[in-house]
Amino acid sequence: MSISADNTTRLWTLVAKEFWRKARRRLRAGPAYRWRYSGRTPERVLIAPPDLRLADPQIALEIYYGRFPLSGHLVETGGQSPFTVEVPNRGWQRSLHGFRWLRHMRAAGTELAAANARALVSDWIAMHGNRISGVAWEPATTAKRIIAWLQHSSVVLQGAEFSFYRSFLRSLAMQIRYLRSMAREMPAGKDRLRARIALAFAALSLPAPVSALRSATRSLAEELDRQILPDGGHVSRNPMAVLEILADLLPLRHTYANQAEQPPLALINAVERMLPALRFFRHQDGSLARFNGMGATIHDRIAAILRHDDTAGSPPLHATHSGYERLAMGGTTVIADTGTAPPIDVSNHAHAGCLSFEMSSGRQHYIVNAGVDTYGIAELRPLARATAAHSTVTINDTSSASFAHSQRVSGLLGSPLFGGPKSVSTQRLDKPGIHGFIASHDGYAQRFGLHHERELSLSAGGSILSGCDRLLRAGKTPIRNDGRDLVSVRFHVHPDIQLFRDQKERLVLTGPDIDTWVFISPDIPAEVEESIYFAGLGGPRRSHQIVLSFKASEVSEVHWQFSRTRIISRLEN
């Protein structure tokens, strides 16, 4: 898809800003600035903040034997320090230098684990502590490391000699000063928010002047106001961002309380909004809906976060500012994307999935989006982000938004999303016994002169999901048969679901439980095609998709329906 002149201008403006930002970051990491990061060494760690992320003592044992399972990849060091091993996977390197794996040592609770943690931290200080360069000192990685070192300082310092104690605190103080200088130069998004969280943790956990805590608190509050939407979603529209930020904000709120300090009102309000937002994106099996960069869900991690949720009650049905709608009834959950693209500078993981939806029944997913393989190869990401990887409408096999894949740009910006829907209108159609909405977007208007309108309603106690997809032309003029009106309505089926035709030629979807869903489309014959489900815990899996294909000049409105039934015997091909 080509990028319009207006979007090209915005792209190169963003490139120029990022180039200048990176130049300033290089300057701040250079010799002229490095003296600013030296200074007084704190005498002690006042408090070790809690860590809500899951910990596994078995992983601590694996690390002891030189096996590092990080970021979806296992690397064996063969007795060497992991900081000397050449590993081309950048995600693995960032995880290594981020030190979140220290939580597994703490969970092990043994002297051996503590000694290993101390040895690895000592290795890092010796090899990277005084050389500000590379992955180890990327501001986002530094923020993770500061939080991890503070949270697990008790296990790192357990049984430590005084010289190591001082070396640890000296390095920690240097990293904090460095991050304080770099935070303002970081791109917009959750990494910059995490940097502000790390600096607030540091001001609370180490002896610091009152002015330092006030400054860190004020900067954190400003960043929260910029990034957390009124309905609790994140400005990137990625459900995973809500989970990740809560995993840091909840311990930070607890640390303020433990230090008898008043947390900023922005922090309190953000947490109270984000917890219901997390429940909004959650299916009944505990997984999060796969929109805008969301991959596989680690269910226990969500459960650990939601233990802190005092906002009891059912999840909200609207996320107006985030751009999502939810239908829920009788064990059936439908979550739909009804929003415009996020701001360009936080759109690196955004998808062209406008008006796509997911449907689960009980603890089983039936209709899904393809999601992303979080730790997989980068070459597959464009496929996962395309409209065709979502349960929605495509026109002429084209995405409703475009992505910047230029090699000149990707080194600076990644692959931001451009040219998506500028306007998405949504109206709820709830009635007694019915949850529903109607929404439309203009993502195809500029190229094909068409608007996509989708109407969904869940009724009969959650046993019937009715849908209608319409292709509309501005001014109600007829749609031309010009070869640019080929439409596909896609429904991606979860790979755990069996899909077959019954004796009436209806498509039947059966899961491991007794719930069975039947798909009918009276207007257009349904075809079954192959698909890929990227968001599996074990990586991409083969799956299927139901496809309705037609020409908008001949059929401008298509009705379809999923109805739940329960059958004892299953008919297979």
From TrEMBL:
GO molecular function, one term: lyase activity
InterPro entries documented for this protein: Chondroitin_lyas, Hepar_II_III_C
Compartment(s): Periplasm
Membrane-spanning residues: none
Keywords: Lyase, Periplasm, Signal
Listed GO CC annotations: periplasmic space
Record bears the keyword Lyase: yes
Source taxon at top rank: Bacteria
Domain Heparinase II/III-like C-terminal positions: 314-561
PANTHER family: HEPARIN-SULFATE LYASE
Record protein name field: Putative heparinase superfamily protein
Organism expressing this protein natively: Aminobacter aganoensis
Source species taxonomy: Bacteria, Pseudomonadati, Pseudomonadota, Alphaproteobacteria, Hyphomicrobiales
